[in-house]
Design a protein that fits this description.
heterodimer, A: Ubiquitin-like (UB roll), five-stranded mixed beta sheet, 3 helices, globular, B: alpha/beta, Rossmann fold, about 35% helix
C-alpha cells in the first residue's frame, strides 16, 4: 500500500521535500512508517526519541487526528492515508 | 451608539462592515493572555479596530531581549510591568479603548475568574501549561479560543470553537519540552495579525473562521498551508478521556 507524508515548516528542510509517497506492507503501522522515514532520510534523531517513540517536539496527524502518543503509533495505516508531520511550536 | 469621532475614526472600516459591525466591536470585551510578541500585534490591531475592552494578562516585566518583537514596549519601558507598558501604548493609539491590566500568572484556580465577563480568549502565550488552562476554561465557558504559536520564521494558528471544533488538547495532547524558542518579530506580526483577524470576524459574525484547520506559516518559503483537524473523541479535555 502507499501513503503520502506531507512535511511542514522545518521538516521540509530536514527531509528536503514537501511531500513523499511511501510504499509500505499491507497492515503497516505508524511506527513502521516512522522507521522507513528515518531510515531513508538519515535523520532519525530529529524524529524519534531514544526509546524509538516520536519526539515530543514533533507533531504527526493522520486524517486530522494526532498519532503521536506511544500507543497511537501502533495505529494501522490504510492505503491512501495522508500523514502530516510538523514541528511543535510554542513561542509567543 | 457611535459618537461623531468614532464615525470619523472608523470610517474606512465601517465601509467594510457597517456601523452595526463597529458597534459589535465597541461592545466586545476580549481576554488576551500575554503581552509579548503575539500579544503586542494582537492588542495593537484590536485596539485600533475599536474593540471596546481589552483585558490583558501578563506577569512579566519588559527586558531588553523582548524588544526585537514585542512592539508594545520600547527602550523607555525596560523594567516596567508589561501590562502597564501595554496599557500606556494602547491608550496612546486609541483612547477610546478600555485596557484592563492583569499582572498575574494564569493558573488553574484563578483563570475562570480572570476571564469572567469576556467574549473571547486569545492565546499570546509562550508555554503550553497555561494554554491548556485556557483551553479548559474556554471549553467550560463555551468561549472561542484563538490559538497562535511561533518558532523562528514559522508559525501556526487555529480557531477553537467549543463543541464545533477540535480543542487545543485534541491537536496537541502533550506539551512540547520546555525551551526558549528562537523568534523573529515579523513572525509574531504575521501570526498575531491572523489571530486578530479571526477575533474581529468572530465578533462581527463575518467570513469563514479557521475552524478545524491548523494554518501553518512558513516565512522562509513565504507560504501558508493548512492541516485539516478533527476532534479526538478520547481527548482528556473535551472528550470521553476527561472522565
Amino acid at each position: 500500500m502507499k501513503v503520502r507524508v506531507k512535511f511542514f515548516a522545518a521538516f521540509r528542510e530536514i527531509f528536503g521535500a514537501e511531500e513523499r509517497e511511501i510504499e509500505l506492507k499491507s497492515g503497516a503501522s505508524v511506527r513502521d512508517l516512522l522507521q522507513v522515514l528515518c531510515h531513508r532520510s538519515g535523520c532519525r534523531e530529529k524524529i524519534l526519541d531514544e526509546a524509538g517513540g516520536l519526539r515530543r517536539d514533533v507533531k504527526m496527524l493522520r486524517k486530522g487526528k494526532h498519532v503521536q502518543l506511544v500507543e497511537e503509533t501502533n495505529t494501522k495505516l490504510e492505503d491512501g492515508d495522508v500523514i502530516t508531520v510538523f514541528p511543535a511550536m510554542f513561542g509567543g | 451608539m457611535l459618537t461623531r469621532d468614532e464615525l470619523a475614526r472608523y470610517k474606512r472600516q465601517i465601509a467594510v462592515f457597517g456601523e452595526e459591525g463597529q458597534l459589535k466591536l465597541k461592545r466586545a470585551r476580549v481576554f488576551l493572555a500575554g503581552a509579548g510578541g503575539l500579544g503586542s500585534t494582537i492588542a495593537t490591531y484590536l485596539a485600533v479596530a475599536g474593540i471596546g475592552s481589552l483585558r490583558i494578562a501578563d506577569n512579566d516585566v519588559v527586558t531588553l531581549d523582548n524588544l526585537n518583537r514585542q512592539i508594545l514596549h520600547g527602550d523607555s519601558d525596560l523594567g516596567r510591568a508589561k501590562t502597564e507598558s501595554a496599557a500606556a501604548r494602547l491608550g496612546g493609539l486609541n483612547a477610546g479603548v478600555t485596557v484592563e491590566a492583569v499582572s498575574e500568572t494564569i493558573r488553574e484556580d484563578s483563570a475562570a475568574e480572570m476571564i469572567a465577563g469576556c467574549d473571547a480568549i486569545i492565546d499570546g502565550l509562550d508555554n503550553f501549561a497555561a494554554r491548556y488552562v485556557l483551553n479548559r476554561v474556554a471549553l467550560a465557558k463555551g468561549l472561542p479560543f484563538f490559538h497562535g504559536a511561533i518558532h523562528g520564521f514559522y508559525g501556526q494558528a487555529t480557531t477553537i470553537i467549543p463543541g464545533r471544533t477540535a480543542c487545543l488538547r485534541c491537536i496537541f495532547p502533550e506539551a512540547p519540552p520546555a525551551a526558549v524558542p528562537p523568534v523573529i518579530g515579523v513572525t509574531a506580526g504575521v501570526i498575531g495579525c491572523i489571530q486578530a483577524t479571526e477575533v474581529i470576524k468572530y465578533l462581527l459574525g463575518m467570513g469563514e473562521l479557521l475552524e478545524n484547520r491548523l494554518l501553518m506559516w512558513d516565512g522562509l518559503g513565504c507560504r501558508m498551508d493548512e492541516v485539516p483537524l478533527e476532534k479526538n473523541p478520547d481527548c482528556q479535555d473535551c472528550g470521553r478521556g476527561g472522565g
